[in-house]
Amino acid sequence: MIPYGRHHIEDDDIAAVVDVLRGPALTGGPAVGRFEAALAGATGAPHAMVCASGTAALHLVAMGLDLGPGDAVVVPSVTFLATANAARYAGADVRFADVDPDTGLLTPETLEQALARPGPGRPRAVFAVHLNGQCANMEGLLAVADRHGLPVVEDACHALGGAYWLEGERYPVGAAPRSVAACFSFHPVKTVAMGEGGAVTTHDAALAERLRRLRTHGMERDPRAFTETVQAFDDLSGDANPWYYEMAEPGFNYRASDLHCALGASQLAKLDRFLDRRRALAALYDRALEPLAPLARPVPRRATEDDGWHLYVVLIDFAAVGLTRAQVITRLRDAGIGTQVHYLPVHRQPYYRALYPDLTLPGADAYYARCLSLPLFPDMEDQAVARVADALREILS
Ligand SMILES: *Cc1c(COP(=O)(O)O)cnc(C)c1O
């Protein structure tokens, strides 16, 4: 069976984790800072904060922006649940935006439409998603967001290793030159695996510091920041009490352990190689699938060299083929090929339907109706691409 995605672990990844196991610190140790420094280096962001998951990263940023009841966060409906749920954790409403029907991406136009819709909630932030590894039009989105005075957060969980252009300058995904922050996931289906893990990159030092506090219950250990001086400092010496810490706002335990961070750092060092392989496989798919047009064609990608290549998605005209998507998926599975659908538009989930019953987003529906993610992972062999393309041609013809 060829899965749609799979992590790639090598001996040195295993050795990195075993080293932590033999050392003194399983969590809260030096592997955390080492991974953060490596991620800051890889993305070009001045600050990187690793945490328990991509979901935790998004939630922490929602808290860092002080989102709450009465606020609304614009989220494209074609994304993983977590992008929207993060806003809900903070108590904010989700203002689902439509997407481009062919790329599934939030566009300046669909962002503008979402902002023009009446409530619920007052728009306070835009969570843009780099779906499939393809970056949203950040220049256009930032222009709209600027006009409305809104910060942009990048859900970059698909796009580590990608890049986008702003005013003629190329920025690695995560550099976040004009967005508040970028959020990453290191779940094993993503390009770099930690087991479970995530990160936020940002150029905002104060935000990074606050997210670090919120990652550990909101605990403050820096005496310069203590406010309760009577209980914080020793009467005689005036020094901070050695056991003392303070909490000004409640956070979570969203830490990533040294075991996870050692694996993440070891994997991150291979990012270029992983990405080259994904890009090469995607190019093979592009060629092998050409004869299937117009019944099936790959999602149009703007700049393949800037793409994070998380998913290789084809858009299939199932009505014209005369098969349902479930039938195609089942026949592919019978041929030993795993596929997946990314994603049921989140506004159609029962929880969100109950909250926002009247919402219809035709672009999201049109993308969802046709999308199918084909296998793509670094271990995949060239012949496997031909096998997938042959099976798809046979089933669709
Ligand atoms: C994977 C993913 C997340 C959540 O990441 P976890 O590490 O699984 O919590 C969020 N957004 C998108 C777009 C993702 O693909």
Keywords:
Aspartate Aminotransferase, domain 1, binds pyridoxal-5'-phosphate, 397 residues, alpha/beta, Aspartate Aminotransferase, domain 2, seven-stranded mixed β-sheet, three-stranded antiparallel β-sheet
Short description:
Helix content is 39%, strand content 16%. The protein has 397 residues and is α/β, with parallel strands linked by helices.
Architecture overview:
- It contains 15 helices and 14 strands.
- By secondary structure, it is an alpha/beta fold.
- Strands 1-9-8-5-4-2-3 form a seven-stranded mixed beta sheet, with helices on both faces. A three-stranded antiparallel beta sheet has the order 12-13-14.
- Strand 4, helix 6 and strand 5 form a beta-alpha-beta unit.
- Helix 3 packs parallel to helix 4, helix 3 crosses helix 7 and helix 10 runs parallel beside helix 15.
- The mean pLDDT is 97.
- It binds pyridoxal-5'-phosphate.
- The site of pyridoxal-5'-phosphate has 14 residues, from helix 3 and helix 4.
- Pyridoxal-5'-phosphate binds next to helix 3 and helix 4.
